[in-house]
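Exercise 7 asks you to align residues with tokens for two separate proteins.
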Amino acid sequence: MTLLSLLALAGTMLLLAAMPGPGVFATVARALSSGFGHASVVVLGIVSGDLVFLLMAVFGLAVMAEALGSFFTIVKYVGAAYLIWLGIKLWRTKPEAVNIDGVKENSWMANYLSGLFITLSNPKVIIFYLGMLPTFVNLTDLGAMDVFLVATVISVVLGCVMLGYAYLASKARKAFQNPDAEKRMNRIGGGIMVATGSVLATKG
């Protein structure tokens, strides 16, 4: 594993992560509706999903994808339904006093799972780890340290880009701190989540 390979991988990940997609939309939606803290947990789920695919790629993603083809289809529809459900719930949330600074205790798992499902059901992520990753690293010749370095690059680059989106969206949210504005933010965020789930469900 060379430094040039790691830099090339980091650059590619930066471009892919910055491109608007289900992960970006869900992160922005959560930041707009609930603040940076909530969105950061969504990002954690997104990064975790990428690491799952990385490990699968290292240990034979093509074989596993063929064997578990129906499982990936199930994950896709479960993830899409989950996002749509979260979006509808957010849309129907009754406006109240906004607490920007803290993450609600009961929402950690819901936020994390939404991010995880987004990644696991995103065909672009599967294609990247199945088709593009081998152009940067020789998956059949990776040692433990190589896997650690690749995982670190992916986590840092993807996490920083997504957290950047979350931070900017949460700053925009602070300009709307009254019940009517919160209702609009909830509906925007909920609408984005429902749209994201619908796109995931209909994509091949």
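Second protein for Exercise 7:
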Amino acid sequence: MDLPKLTAQIRAFAEARDWLPHHTPKNLVMAMSVEMAELLEHFQWLTPQQAEQLGRDPVRREPVEDEMADVLIYMLRLADVLGVDLERAIHAKMIKNALKHPAVPR
């Protein structure tokens, strides 16, 4: 996944629709929260086994993929607006996670 390329594509999409004035950090976080709730709806009331099988059902999987994409689109847009290098932030966070949660010896 080329995050800078995706970010530029998403920015161009928003610019072409004159959405940039509305893409404030607050609005983007709120929109992302709505999309997460829409994703959650697909899993609400499922057993763990049913949730795992959801990914194998093409009819039920497509709307889940759409919601996942919406969440990531808003995240990339938010990072763009805030000037956050998500690749760097992810790598730094993984290092912190590894220190906080050491691997279990096998």
